[in-house]
TrEMBL record, chain A:
GO terms for biological process: deadenylation-dependent decapping of nuclear-transcribed mRNA; P-body assembly. InterPro entries: Pat1-like, PAT1_dom. This is DEKNAAC104858. It comes from Brettanomyces naardenensis (Yeast). Its main location: cytoplasm. One of its GO terms (molecular function) is RNA binding. Keywords: Cytoplasm, Nucleus, RNA-binding. Residues 82-96, 105-121, 265-278 have a biased composition (Polar residues). It is found in: Cytoplasm, P-body; Nucleus. Residues 1-128, 225-300, 316-360 are annotated as: Disordered.
TrEMBL record, chain B:
This is LSM complex subunit LSM3. It is found in: Nucleus. Residues 11-92 form the Sm domain. Its main location: nucleus. InterPro entries: Lsm3 (IPR034105), LSM_dom_sf (IPR010920), Sm (IPR047575), Sm-like_LSM3 (IPR040002), Sm_dom_euk/arc (IPR001163). The gene is LSM3. It comes from the Eukaryota. It comes from Brettanomyces naardenensis (Yeast). GO terms for biological process: mRNA splicing, via spliceosome. GO terms for molecular function: RNA binding. Belongs to the snRNP Sm proteins family.
Amino acid sequence: MSFFGFDPSGQPGHRKDGKLDLDSFQNFDDEMHSEEEDALNDETFGAAADNLSKDFDFSSGSGSKLSSKGGLKPAPAPIQPNAISYAQAANTTGNDSLRPMESLWNDQQQNSEVQSAQSQETEPEKKVFSLEEIEAKMRAQPPPSQLPQLPPPQQQFSPGMNPFMLPPQAQQQLLASAIASGRYPDMQTAARAVTQMLMAPPPMSQQGMMPQGMMPPPFMGYPVQPMGMGLPQQGLPQQGLPQQGLPQQGQIPQPIQQAPIQPENGETQRAQQHQSPLQTQEEQAAPAPEAPSVAQVQVSPPEERLDLNSFPTIEAASQTKSADSSSASSPRQPQQSHQLQQHQQGFHQQGYRGGNNYRGHHFYNQQQRQYQQRQQVENLNPEERSKYLARQEKVGKITRASGFMNPRDKDFITRIQLSQIVTDDPYNEDFYCQVYKVLNSSVEENSMNYLAKKYLEQSGHRLGGRSKRADIALQRMQQQVSKAVSVAKERGERSGVLSKEGALGKVSFGTGKRPRQLLVVNAENKENDENDLLPKEYKMYRSSRSVQLSSIESVYSEVLKLESRERENEGIDDSELWKSLQVSDGATAEDTVDPFVALLSFDKMMKVFTRVFPLLSAEHKIATIERIFSDLQKVDVVLKGSYKNYPQQNYEIPKDVRSRIELFQITVLKTLVLYLSDAPFALVLHLLDSIVKKNNVLFLCTTKIGLSLITVLISRLELIKQEFSKNLSAQDLSQWQQTYDSLFQCLEGRLVTVIPPYFSKDEQKSVKNGDSEGDDSYIWQFLASLSLAGLLDHQRIIVDEVRDEIFGAMAAAKKLKTEGNVERAEKYLNNLNLFLNVMGLKANEDDITELSDE
Amino acid sequence: MVDEKSVSASEPLDLIRLCLDEQIFVKLRGNREMTGKLHAYDSHCNIVLGDATETIYYLESGSEDVKSRKEKSELVFVRGDSVMSIADASNIGKTNA
C-alpha cells in the first residue's frame, strides 16, 4: 500500500504478458496486495502505529527482505585494501562504466568472468568461490561450531572498534554523498532515501547474476542502486543515475570479489561450491531469524584484519561523498562498501527482530518470482526486451518517490485533509449545507459515516478492489474523522491563531473556512485603552454611523450565538445580547436619539428584531417594548412616515421610506403585536399610557405605524375589558378611562388629520397621488377602535368630525359602482362599515341605516 | 460565528461586514463601478449585490471624453478578483448617483 497506489516494496515486472500500460499498474497493485497479508489500508490508516519498530522500516518490510538475503551477500569486507590491484580495477571499470546499463548483467557477467580469471591468476592455488556459496556453506554449518572461531579475531580489533560501531559513520558517509549528488532537496529527504537504500535490496544486481552461477558479489545499496527502490533500475540506461553511479558500479564489485579468496573460509566450503545459487537463495530466504546473525558471525573474521587505517576517517568520508568517480577515490571504495555492508548487517539484525515469518515467506516468494521473471527476460527477443525495459522504466519513475511516507505520515496527512472539511459547529459554519441535507435526504446516515464514505470516494481510495476490506477502511476513516473533529474542537480559539503572551512567534493555522490569517492585530488590551489613549478626534460617537453599524453586527453575532445554544438545548443567557442592544443605556447629551431606537432605523436591525425578541427574557422584552413606545415618534420610520412631512411632494411619502415602513410593519410591528395579543391588561395599559404621555399623539396619528399601534393597544384593552371584566380591578378600569380621555383630548377637534389627504374623500382637502390607491382600512380600524372604547359622547364627536369623510366615501363608492368598478366600491363601503358597525350603523352607497340582525 | 471583538474591526473584512444589507459602492477592474445593496461577501471579496447599478466607463475612438453607460441588475454576483475597493455608499456621497 502506498499513497499513489504502488507498493514500493513490490517487485514489478513479474507479469508474463510483458505489456505495459498504466492501467495495468492498478492490477499490479492488486496482485501485490493479494500476496501481502497486510490490510489494504493498514498503513494508510495507521494500524501500524502500535509497532514502532515496524514504523521505522520505511520500505515496508524490506528489512526482513534484506535479512532473508543476508546469506547472499558478500561477507562484508573480507578485503585487504592493499591487496587490490588498482590497475586492474582501472582497467575493468574504464570500459564498463560508459556502457549502457541496459546490458548490465551480461556485461557484468563477462566482467566478473574476467575478474575471476584475474584473481585466479594472482592466486592460482585457491579455488574461487562466489561469496554466496561461501556464505551458504557457512550457513549450512551449525552455528556453535562456528563460534569458536570468533574469539581470536576479535583480539585483533583495536579497542572500541567493532563492526557495530560502524553503522553511524557509514550512514553519515552515505548521507553526505547522497546530498552531494544533489538529488535530494534537503537533508531529511536524503536521510530517508539513504535509510531506504540501506534497507532495500538491489534485487537485480543479485538476482540478475545469480543464475549464472558466476557470482560477482553484488554491491549492496548505495552507488549501484541510488534509489534503493527494489526495482530493476540498472537495466534502464536513462534512469537518471548520477554520473558517479556508473563508474562505481564497475569498480566496486571488483575489490569485493577478492573476498572469496580467503584462505580460511575457502577451504571449508570447497565441497559445496557447485551448489546452485538459486538453491542457496531459496534455502536462505526461507529460514527464520537466526540466519542473518549467523551470517554476521561468519562474516566477522575477515574484518579483523583491517587495520585502523582502513576505516575511513571523516575526511575520507567527505572525499568519498564528493562522489568523485575518478580513480583517485576508487581505492576508498572498498572501504566504503565494506562499511556499507557492515552497516547493512546491523540493520538486518534489527529488521529481523521486528520481522516475522510471513514476511520471510513473502519475500521468498517474491524472489522466486523475480528469478523466474529474470529468466523470462533473458529469453525474450530484443524487441520484447526493450518493451520490458521501457515498462520497468515507467514503473521506476512512478515508484521513484513512493514509500517516503510511513503510515504515521499518511495518517497525519489524512487528518489534515479531513480537518479542512469537518467542523464541530456545522450549523454555523456549514449552515446551508446542513439545511440542504435536511431538505434533501429523507434517510440521513450518521454524519461520520457519511463523511468518511464521501472522503474515501473522493480521494481515490479504492474500496471496490478489495471489497472485503471496504468496511475496515471505512471504519478507519471514521476514526480519522472523529479524531479530526475532536482536534477541531480542541483547537479552541476561533481566530485560528495561538499566541502566547510574551512569545515571539505565533502559531496560526488555516482551515477551509478560515484561511490562515497573516495579520494579527492584538485586540486584547484594546478595550481598556480605548477610552484613555485615543485622541479625542478619533473617538467615535455612539450616534456615528459606523458605531451603529458595528453595534448591529454585534447584535447579529449574539443572536447567532444564542440561537446555536438554543438548537443545542443549552440555557440561554441574554445578558450579552441585552448589552449589545443598548436598550437600557438611554440617550445621552451627545445624541438626540436613544441608541436602541437609533439602531431601529437600519433595515437589518428591523430584520433581526424578530429573532432578537424571542431570545430576550420577560423583563427585557417589556423594557424593550417600553423603550420603543416611549420613543415612538423618534423611530425613523415613524418620524419620516408622516404625510405631513411632505406637503411639497403632494403629501406622498417617498418610495424608500414607504418600503421601510412596510418592512417595519412585517418585522418589528408584527413581533410586537404578537406579543401584545397575549399581554395582560395592566401591561398594555401601561404601554398605551407611555405612548400617549411621552409622544406627540397628534403627530403619531398622522403616521401609519403610530396609528396602527394605537389601534392595536386600544382594541386589546377593550377586548380584555369586555371579555374578562370580572378579573379587572376597579383601579385598572379607571386608569384605562383616564388614559382614553387623555388620548381623546389630544385628538378632539383634529380627528380628520388622521386621514391623509390622499385617502381623503372630502372634496376640499382630497389630493391625488401615488398612495391614493393604497389600503386605507387602517384608518377606519383606528376610528372603529376609538369609538368602540369610547362612550356615546365620544362616538358622536368622532362621527361629527369625520362626517365629510363618511359621505365622501359613500359618494366615491356610488361613483365607482356606476363606473362599473363594483369591487373597489365594495371595498370602500366595507372599510367604512368597519367603523360604522361599531356604532350599530351600516352604510351603503346611498344611505346609512341602523345595523339589524338580518 | 464571530465574537464581539472581531466585530469591532479586528480584521479588514469586518469593515465590509458592517456594510451588510447597506448600499455600497464598489470599484472594479475594467473601468467599472457598482452600487447596490450588499447581500453577501466572503474572504475573497466575492460579493452579491441586490438592485445593483453598474457604471461602465469607456472611451470612444476619436473622442477624448470618457463616456459611461449604466447597467442594472436585480441580483448580481461580483467575483472578488475584480474588486478594487468597497465603500459604504453613504460615505461616498451622492456624487455618483
